[in-house]
Design goal:
Elements lengths: L2 H9 L19 E5 L4 E5 L6 H9 L9 H21 L4 H15 L18 H18 L12 H5 L5 H37 L4 E6 L2 E7 H25 L2 E2 L14 H15 L4 E2 L3 H6 L2 H27 L10 E2 L17 H25 L9 H25 L5 E2 L1 H10 L8 H4 L1 H14 L3 H8 L4 H7 L2 H4 L4 H4 L1
Parallel strand pairs: 5-6
Antiparallel strand pairs: 1-2, 3-4, 7-8
Helix pairs in contact: 2-5, 3-4, 3-5, 3-7, 3-9, 4-5, 5-7, 7-8, 7-13, 8-11, 11-12, 11-13, 12-13
């Protein structure tokens, strides 16, 4: 039995025929016949996609997801730029170029999304997606010129829409453009988070709590200082993302198949990138070595690494917030996170730190995606890397999900955090960590002895020092002042 027949009989896999893409939809009433090097196929008459898109949709039923909208827009920009450039060189008639450009504009406006039927996870280095775009644009351009979809004598997907191009320069360029736009959005989301953390650092600057190293009491720190450190770490991520985006601005468009520019006019090669920059609004630069830019995908590895680093930072902050808010009675209980939803189906009144938890999970996924991207970039051979689809799938997912996690982190967690000042004060007073400041006065060994007595006898450090007559009361008060131990306050730095 064929695998699809087995699936249909056992798990209800939707029924469909040879031409069906979405098997849940009713069969079209009318078809057109299209041909390719493999044979012929029936295509729904109303469809803007063609035979190559159909074959790919049948071959790659992998994720069940659509191509990222930013990727589709980037391809549309490239196809429009190519049509305008080819027209300026005389390689493409004005009416054809205008029709192609109009079709691209309609895609940029959100049109024809249902006709991009190729799964983002696909073999062929992105050829299927490139041809899906070529076919959709060609058939819409044919309509604009008054023809009937499928009449490629008017506008041909390869000869006209793909003129001067190859999958191997279109798809990497589109991926870089999409990532640049997505990183811009992520940077803005992080800036909101940075502002929220900075405001909390000011709000909590007077709250003194116990600092901890290796989960053990260390020396006092202000809660505001901790939040300032979080804000600074996020700011570094913003700066890294800005630099990483610059790596993506170098593109191989014009290199066609392997970077040598075969089948592309010299004038076209010189003009295409400036035209693309003009219509897309993205600052791009044609690579000095188009062969290198076609073979090697290390810029995506670099960007993924920056996204992963940002994810690691956000996860660490989330870990801290979960610890400091733990309890609320039997844990640290130093801060309270805003209650967003019930935490248990069995324990009444339980509230969980769900926002930091989801940030953690997004970070775990981004770290795994980074590994996949590194492996895919390494796996290229000779003049081309065939694994761009998995790189884009994982990179786009990491950027998108991290951005959405940052939004909920800032809006639904950070802005609503409150400090439990009395709890923080009591923990500082009961800790032996404050004995550290005595070491410089009474010596390390004696300070250690005082700490041991405080723990064993469950007595305050201050009481032991005064009881043994080691220092006078004024000196003890000065040395054991928690605020003094936290260093210069933000108000003193301004």
């Amino acid at each position: 039995m064929h695998i699809e027949e087995m699936l249909r009989s056992t798990v209800g896999w939707p029924a469909g025929g040879d031409t069906a893409v979405d098997f849940s939809k009713a069969e079209p009433s009318e078809y057109r016949i299209e041909h390719d090097s493999i044979g012929e196929k029936k295509i729904p008459a109303e469809a803007y996609y063609g035979i190559q898109s159909m074959r790919a949709a049948e071959n790659f039923r992998i994720t069940g997801l659509d191509t990222h909208p930013e990727m589709l827009c980037s391809i549309a920009y490239i196809k429009k730029a190519a049509a305008l450039t080819n027209c300026s060189t005389g390689a493409l008639d004005r009416d054809k170029a205008d029709a192609i450009a109009q079709a691209c504009d309609e895609i940029l406006d959100g049109g024809f999304r249902s006709d991009f039927i190729v799964d983002p996870m696909q073999g062929g280095a992105g050829t299927s997606l490139n041809m899906n775009a070529n076919e959709v644009i060609a058939n819409r351009a044919i309509e604009i010129l008054g023809g009937t979809k499928g009449d490629y004598s008017l506008i041909h997907p390869n000869d006209h829409v793909n003129l001067g191009q190859s999958t191997n320069d279109v798809i990497p360029t589109a991926g870089k453009m999409a990532a640049i736009r997505m990183l811009t959005r992520l940077r803005m989301q992080l800036q909101v988070l940075h502002l929220a953390l900075s405001k909390k650092s000011e709000e909590f600057d007077h709250v003194i709590k116990m600092g901890r190293t290796q989960m053990q009491d260390a020396v006092p720190i202000r809660l505001g200082q901790e939040f300032k450190a979080y804000a600074d770490a996020v700011e570094r991520s913003i700066l890294r993302i800005e630099k990483a985006a610059d790596e993506l601005r170098v593109i191989n468009l014009g290199g066609t198949a392997i970077g040598t520019g075969v089948n592309a006019d010299d004038e076209y090669i010189g003009k295409i990138v400036p035209v693309l920059c003009d219509i897309s609004g993205i600052d791009l630069v044609q690579a000095d070595d188009l062969i290198d830019a076609t073979q090697n995908l290390d810029p995506f590895v670099s960007v993924s690494g920056v996204v992963k680093t940002c994810a690691v930072t956000l996860s660490k902050i989330s870990n801290d917030l979960r610890l400091m808010s733990s309890g609320p009675k039997a844990g640290f209980g130093e801060i309270s996170l805003p209650a967003r939803q019930s935490g248990s189906s069995i324990m009444p009144g339980k509230i969980n730190p769900v926002i930091p938890e989801v940030v953690n999970q997004v970070a775990f996924n981004a770290i795994g995606n980074d590994t996949t991207i590194a492996l895919a970039a390494e796996a290229g051979q000779l003049e081309l890397n065939a694994f761009l689809p998995i790189i884009f799938y994982n990179l786009f997912q990491s950027i998108d999900t991290l951005g959405f996690a940052v939004e909920t982190f800032a809006d639904n967690c950070i802005t609503g955090i409150t400090a439990n000042e009395e709890r923080c004060r009591k923990l500082v007073e009961s800790s032996v960590g404050i004995v550290t400041t005595l070491a410089a006065v009474v010596g390390y060994d004696k300070a250690t002895d005082i700490a041991k007595k405080a723990l064993i006898q469950d007595r305050p450090v201050r009481e032991i020092i005064l009881g043994e007559g080691l220092l006078d009361e004024d000196e003890v008060t000065r040395l054991l002042d928690p605020a003094r131990m936290t260093g210069i306050g933000s108000e003193d730095r301004n």
